[in-house]
Design goal:
5-stranded mixed sheet; globular; disordered C terminus; single chain; about 25% helix; alpha/beta; about 220 residues
Length: about 220
């Protein structure tokens, strides 16, 4: 797949992870200051719909629905169909509701074996695209590696590249020598816009942790 490239001057670009829609557990609800799961679900959708516009790009970095039981597929479809220009999804470690929807379209195109996955794969009649477990994109010429889990070394990290991820629910101590950021819902309880990420990461002074020092010669190779 050709690497995706975007300009923030042309549209807003949003990131979110770990929505955990429908997850009725104190370790999820309490840190987010929700009184109950219904309040959490309502607020999550209110914030997603109020921030993301029809011409915007959304990158969703996993764990969209969790612990929602019979409501899992309904909640997944509600997130998938948030009005935006394009909605890209990276798998997390919780896939309630959405895994069944992915398997259905995978089977519809003849990929009947569980050992075969296909990316990118767009859900019919939506702008929602499955990107798999990992993706590399460019925004304003900045290389960005998208994952659910944080990683220690990534492509173009020595060229100023970012790793944007979720999974840790903002509990991991940030390393100021790495341009890496957790955009999980626990941070702002809303999606995070690209320019907010740039402001957060530009003050970090990259220090190589392996042989990948600053080398712009391979920037777009």
């Amino acid at each position: 797949m050709k690497k995706l490239s975007f300009k923030s001057s042309e549209q807003k670009i949003w990131f979110v992870a770990d929505l955990h829609v429908g997850h009725n557990k104190p370790f999820i609800l309490n840190p987010r200051a929700y009184n109950n799961v219904n309040e959490a679900v309502q607020h999550t959708f209110d914030m997603m719909y109020s921030h993301i516009g029809p011409d915007d790009i959304l990158f969703n970095l996993g764990d969209m629905v969790c612990g929602a039981g019979a409501n899992s597929e309904e909640y997944a479809k509600r997130v998938m169909t948030i009005p935006c220009k394009q909605h890209f999804y990276i798998w997390g470690n919780h896939s309630a509701g959405i895994k069944g929807l992915y398997d259905k379209i995978r089977n519809d195109i003849g990929l009947l074996s569980d050992d075969i996955e296909m990316y990118p794969l767009t859900y019919p009649s939506t702008n929602f695209t499955f990107l798999g477990h990992y993706a590399e994109i460019f925004i304003d010429r900045t290389p960005v590696v998208l994952t659910h889990y944080p990683i220690a070394s990534w492509n173009h990290m020595g060229d100023g590249g970012y790793n944007i991820h979720g999974h840790c629910h903002r509990s991991m101590k940030e390393d100021n020598s790495l341009k890496r950021l957790d955009v999980g819902w626990d941070w702002k309880k809303r999606p995070v816009e690209w320019n907010e990420i740039v402001r957060e990461l530009k003050s970090k002074n990259f220090k190589p942790i392996d042989h990948h020092g600053a080398d712009t010669s391979s920037f777009f190779e």
